[in-house]
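User: Here's a chain of 103 residues. Predict its fold as tokens.
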Amino acid sequence: MNYQILFFFRSLASPTTYEANERSTTAEKKAAMVMHRVVPDCRSRLTLPNTSCLSSGLEIEPLKLISTLKSARQTTLTNLYVGQKSKEFKLQPNDVSSILVSF
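Assistant: Prediction complete.
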């Protein structure tokens, strides 16, 4: 099956330190991997050859996709609430999800 997933990495920084009037932020070895599973618009007049992908979930395994990743955790889009470590993440059609990954 042909799935279209748009994803990008949002870098994270350590808390800002204010010492001697110099602001300092350092990057963490973590990033939010934000994914959007794109599906065709149901209002489209085009005939799709296979529509089974519109209703089924998709398992994503970030640690297998990118070999430099060390861990992955389900998180909210804002990274305020981080869940348990996992190897597989389910992505539904037209869903936007975020995974906190560490390098």
